[in-house]
Design a protein that fits this description.
With 250 residues, the chain is mostly helical. The chain contains 14 helices and five strands. The longest helix is centred in the middle third of the chain and has 27 residues.
Length: 250
Amino acid sequence: ANDMVGGAIGVLTLVPYRYWRKTHAIHHKTSGDLDHRSFGDIDTLTVNEYLALSKLKRLRYRLYRNPFILLILGPAYQLILKHRFPADIPRSWKREWASVHKTNLALLAILILAWQTIGVQRLLMVHLPISLLSGSIGIWLFYIQHQFEDTYWRHHKEWDFIDAGIRGSSHYDLPKILQWFTANIGLHHIHHLSSRIPNYRLQKCCDENEQLRRVTRVTLGQSFKCLLLSLWDEEQGGLVGFRHLKTLGA
C-alpha cells in the first residue's frame, strides 16, 4: 500500500517514486563521505579539488553553486528533464527504470486527458508553478540541512555513520508554522540517524534526548549566510566560500 501511495505521489510531484527511494537511501548511507559522493547530494568539491580544475570547469562549478541556478533553474531541470530521463542511474536498476517509465506514461496520460478537457495550457499554468515552487523549497531545505559551516565530511576510512548524522545534518530551527508546513524535516539529524522514525515523532525524539539537542542549530535568519559556502576545506575542517581562496593566493 505504501508503494502504491508513493507511486501516486511521485506522479503529482513529477518524481519517480522508486528512483527517488533508492537514490535517497544511497544518500543516507554515504552522506558526508568524501570518497562516496554520488546520489542525492549537492555537489561539493574540496578546495584542493577545485584548484586542480581547469578554468572552464571552475566556471561550471561556480555556476552550479550560484543560488539562482541552484534554487531557481535547478528545480526546473530536475523535475522537467532529469527525472524524466535519469541518465545518472545504471540500466541494471530495473525497478527504478520501470518506475521512471510508469511515471512518464502517467504524466503523458494526464496531458492527453487535459488536452481533451480543460486544455494543456490551463493544467500547466496551475500545476507547473506549484511544482517548481515546491522544488525550490525542497532544494533549499536540503541545502541548509547539509551545507553549513561546521558540517561533516571525512574520507571513508575515517567516516562514521553516527557522526555523519549528528554532525553532518543540521537542526534547521524554523518558526513553528514553517516547521509544521515542512513536516519537521528541519530536525534532519534525527531523520538521518533513523529514517524509519515518522516525521511527526521527530520533535518528541529531540525533546526527550539531550544529545540530540546538542547539534548545529541553524535559524531562518542564519540560513541565508550558508549560500556563501561552496567548498570543503580539509585543513580547516569546514565549508568555506570562494572568497576564502584569496587567502590562499589562488
